[in-house]
Amino acid sequence: MVxxxxxxxxxxxxxxxxxxPITHLPIGLTVGAFIFLIVAIVFKKKQLxxxxxxxxILAFVFVFPTILLGVLDWMHFYRAVLMPAIVxxxxxxxxxxxxxxxxxxxxxxAKLHSFWMTSLLAIAFVxxxxxxxxxxxxxxxxxxxxxxxxxxxxxxANAVPQSPEFRRGRAVFAANCQSCHGNGLNAIVASLPxxxxxxxxxxxxxxxxxxxxxxxxxxxxxxxxFDPSILSDAQVSDLYAYVSKxxx
Length: 248
Prior knowledge:
By secondary structure, this protein is mostly helical. It folds into 2 domains: 2-139, no CATH class; 164-243, Cytochrome Bc1 Complex, Chain D, domain 2 (Orthogonal Bundle). It has helices at residues 2-11, 19-22, 24-42, 49-77, 84-106, 115-139, 164-176, 178-181, 203-211, 233-243.
């Protein structure tokens, strides 16, 4: 059902995560609420306290659709794999939700400047900063690392090729693989990094693996299956063009 929803969006030309754009609302409003509160306290501008609380209320409201879209993106783009960065994001989102909820429920305008209300908004502020950090790491990551040669110059041997297939493959990797395999590593099973995997020996071996992933002993691992409805043969070919060269 989730994949059908994204397939419908793709038909109208939208093939991007839904979660990322809406995160600006609760993050921006939480930051705004905290700043208004600090300015009100430091400069004794009591008239800014209602603004701080109203921003916190709006942030609390927008947390819910943000979490919903985040779960949908996680199920579609990452096949619901519970990698460490996702666990951290779930934990931080829960903390932010509870903190903002406490501010909304307990923090009347007259109490908002109290120690506890200030602490709750501070916790929410730190929480959304953490969500932004780990969210950007999942979405963008550091998929390419070009090591400088001696003397700080990059040589042809360690320069990253930028063919059209390589660039397309990098986008496929960022959308489907980055969260678990950033920098060619493996966030789930550290002893099985992608960049040294025998599955990169050929396009056929990579394609066979992404269509039916398994552990070295033949058992099922946590990696999801990427059938042709998720990654076409052309996308797998582009992916191979990227992963076979990105960490050389």
